[in-house]
Amino acid sequence: MKRWIANVAALSVGVTASLVFVEVGLRVAGLNYPAFYTVDAVRGFALRPGAQGEWTREGRGEVRINRAGFRGRDVDQSPAPRVLRIAVLGDSFTEALQVDEQQSFVQQLQERLASADHCSLRRKDSAGVEVLNFGVGAYGTGQQLLTWRHLARRYRPDWVLLVVYPGNDFTDNEPISRSDRPVFVLDAQNNLVVDQGFRQSAAYRWRMSLPGRALDGLVNHSRLLQLLNEAKNRWASRVQPDQEQSQSVRPQVPRTPVASDQAWRLTDHLIAALASEAQADQARFAVISTSAPEQVWPIASERPSQPFAQEQRLGSLLAKRQIPYLPLAPDLQRQADQAGLLLHGFKGQSPGEGHWNANGHRLAADLIAPWLCQL
Predict the structure, then answer these.
(1) Phi and psi (nearest 5°) for 209?
(2) Separation of alpha carbons 199 and 182, rounded Å
(3) Going by DSSP bridges, is the β-strand pair 183-186/192-195 parallel, antiparallel, or unpaired?
């Protein structure tokens, strides 16, 4: 028995020493895979308050999440006197982890509005402009509405901009129960009702349990656990072997999934609710839509025959509710074609796919700023 105990003790010491050695080695090497997301009781998941590090899954961006849980520096909930404050709600295109914060269209929009000589948004005695980025990857309009209710409205913005990604925001609003997030549905009286059934999922209950929270905290502080977690995430999202393309095969143009009429009805009601609630808090409201990869695909002949059909349908809904709307895709397509620019995709990836690169963010800010100044 004594020999067995001694062997177990020696093994434990050896394993512990090895783990400490690996942990120290990863820190010395600068390897860091912070967990940027965490479980959220209201929205299912959200950005992790205080997380910092480099995003490398697509593009490469230095990321800072403030203590309140949105990208950027810490800001006071009450804006300073005479400061124009704009809250931007959206998904991963707004969140923009793929680029450095200063390259995101949100930060570039702030710079352009602050330096604009003639802008109706700013008072003559303006003390500055703040554009706050409340975007979170994979959010649909329902989670953006909840972000407004439980976070963004506390910051008392003068304007609220809802940024819609036509690639999947409408299908994200399908009234189908999800295990990772709340879902909105319409009752018999066409009132919005939020279904929080995701709280009953095994994954959510585990992550909210004491052991789950403890493990989450460890992952956030241990470089070794971060590396293992990153490996797990990349393995889970890997392309299946039969779907892989050889480098000699030209990538296929992406296709946006078609949302049901029910999803469109929900989108209409969700945007109307967000507009109404923003206006009740004395904030003006507008909608902007980004581009999807196929709309600005590098080979024009491979684009859809009606690339802006969803923008037209969304524009009709918003016009009935007298909500200002700027569809970016038509102008982005024209400018990309004229200058021969790629707006989506990053070095080492298939050209034209994925999120906006620096070109996409810069052109978006160029288009949004003057449009806002004319409202």
Answers:
(1) -75, 165
(2) 8
(3) antiparallel
Q: Model confidence over 139-185: pLDDT tens digits?
A: 999 999 999 999 999 999 999 999 999 999 999 999 999 999 999 99
DSSP bridge pairs for 61: 55
DSSP assignment of 212-242, as one string?
HHHHHHHHHH-HHHHHHHHHHHHHHTPPPGG
**Tokens for 88?**
């931007």
Distances in Å between the Cα of 99 and the Cα atoms of 23, 33, 65, 106, 360 are: 28, 16, 14, 12, 11
CA proximity to 332, closest of 286, 365, 374: 365
Domains of the chain, each with CATH number or no CATH: 31-234+256-373 (3.40.50.1110)
Which token pair is 57? 């899954």
CA-based R_g, the chain, Å: 23
- Express each pLDDT in 235-281 by its tens digit: 655 543 333 343 445 678 888 899 999 999 999 999 999 999 999 99
